[in-house]
């Protein structure tokens, strides 16, 4: 099946988001309207710390206005610019939100976020060799709380609904597959 764009118009724009409405034509000539939310690239970071006591992750808890609740998730975000170096973005978001710097950043992959509605790419990074420093949060991040949890606890949080962010769950799944295959190499 192919869909042809007949026309496209922007219906809303702010510093973070653009919304457009496209008139489309499907195979067979049937026309319709498609709404598309466009956002600049983002990243999600898996800050993994391995110690003698085990493996730990650094998570963020913050209020998410769209669903009117606080949630726990992996550090993530964007800089509202299309031309951004993904690793620089990942390092910046990690430092801004958690105060952590990483000795090693490994790109695990790229995902589209909710591509049935939105056009936004997310780069997934593993951060290792962590060093603690100062945060540099945006105004919107005033209520962030950093949590350090064992990997097993994070996985329980995904299963019991304390982590409901699909990007965090998808990034963790990608990491688990990457790690399993790396171990077999």
UniProtKB/TrEMBL annotation:
Keywords: Hydrolase. Residues 38-180 form the Nudix hydrolase domain. It catalyses: GDP-alpha-D-mannose + H2O = alpha-D-mannose 1-phosphate + GMP + 2 H(+). Gene3D superfamilies: Nucleoside Triphosphate Pyrophosphohydrolase. It comes from the Bacteria. One of its GO terms (biological process) is nucleoside phosphate metabolic process. Belongs to the Nudix hydrolase family. NudK subfamily. Its cofactor is Mg(2+). One of its GO terms (molecular function) is hydrolase activity. Pfam families: NUDIX (PF00293). This is GDP-mannose pyrophosphatase.
């Amino acid at each position: 099946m192919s869909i042809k764009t007949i026309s496209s118009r922007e219906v809303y724009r702010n510093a973070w988001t653009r919304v457009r409405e496209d008139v489309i034509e499907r195979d067979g000539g049937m026309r319709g309207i498609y709404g598309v939310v466009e956002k600049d690239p983002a990243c999600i970071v898996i800050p993994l710390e391995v110690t003698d006591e085990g493996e730990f992750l650094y998570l963020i808890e913050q209020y998410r206005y769209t669903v009117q609740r606080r949630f726990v998730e992996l550090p993530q975000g964007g800089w509202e610019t299309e031309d951004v170096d993904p690793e620089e973005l990942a390092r910046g978001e990690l430092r801004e939100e958690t105060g952590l710097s990483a000795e090693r950043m490994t790109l695990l992959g790229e995902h589209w976020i909710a591509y049935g509605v939105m056009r936004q790419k997310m780069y997934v990074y593993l951060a290792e060799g962590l060093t603690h420093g100062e945060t540099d949060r945006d105004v919107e991040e005033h209520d962030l709380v950093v949590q350090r949890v064992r990997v097993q606890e994070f996985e329980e949080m995904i299963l019991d609904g304390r982590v409901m962010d699909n990007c965090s769950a998808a990034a963790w799944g990608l990491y688990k597959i990457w790690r399993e295959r790396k171990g077999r190499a």
